[in-house]
Amino acid sequence: MSVEPPLPQPIAAQLNHLLTYSPLSVKVERVWSGSKNARYSDRLTLSIPFCLDYIKWDVIYNALHPSLAPDVVFSLEDDDFDPLGDIAREGEMRLSKSSLCDWNGKDPSKLMALVHELRDLYTHYQRRRVGEIDDARLKFELNTMLSREGIEVCMVPSLDRPEEVKFSVRLIDTDLNKLVTSCNWKHQQKIYLQVIFPVSRSYSSAPAAPRIKLVSTPELKSLFSIEDVKLPQWLDGMCMAEYLPVIEDHLKVQVVEAIASIGARRRFIEALAPLFGRPLEVDPVFCRRATVLCGSGAFTFLVHFSIPTQFPKQQPILVMQSSQHFNSQSLPISSPPVNEYPWSPRWEPAEMAERIFEFVVDECLDFKKFCIDSSPK
Question: What is the Cα–Cα distance from 224 to 340, expressed in whole angstroms?
């Protein structure tokens, strides 16, 4: 695999600033050079979050003159996106504020400012495209929803199916990061409703329900799984303005339960100590994992607890791992995941821990035999 040359220092500083400080989860798809046998790379492909998907833009610098502003090449399906024309149409005031007018290659924040500026213009471009569609229902949805903060809308590119329009609506205005004590999430955690409408050129008194899906930032799965949330039904004739309060009320209950589950998991982990001893490892923020050291005579082993977000409705998954037996790859021998043991979500944490302790005592001899039989001869 060929290794591309490094970026010149000014360009590298701008890219690092973008990836470190942007509130957007921008990704670098590719770094390469526009010339063969060049000393430096000068081209980037960035994946930029937009409307619950990613748009890919090529940022073209000049390695010989890294202080110059880059060109940006957009995707083929956006060939009529003209950000400079949009800036010019908005007048001299907008032009004077554009990051391209006072470009300073030594300022590491410039690339981030440019990406954010272009993304804002791209947001307006997509709204304009959707607004030009001759579909009464879409025009109504667009006009009633655009005043809502953070909403994004776009045409869904496709060559092999009818036209569709996608809305991305942020749900719950509560700062989710502050709900979890000592949480170190880098980005603001958010939950969105994705709504995809088919484009209909004819008026229908009872249009079909759109496709709807909840989407969250990836790190939020440590708190609760968005896939486990059952969506309320979209009733006939409903619009987004009617549906959103229903789904937001539903989600707020789910978030409250998820926060309460952290406390329940913490109390369960604390209840392990009198029986198993102080855990060797614990997830101190979400209390999703714990590891304890056990022994039976000279045989010592670890028990790893994986505690689901739906605890105590769902019981922990246990994995026993020998500290003395290793497989042919020199890895510790472990048991398959176990969740078939006495359990009731109505038990107090002390009883949950006691029942698991009794189960491990009963299983440890069988696990020791399993380790011996699985060890290389």
Answer: 23
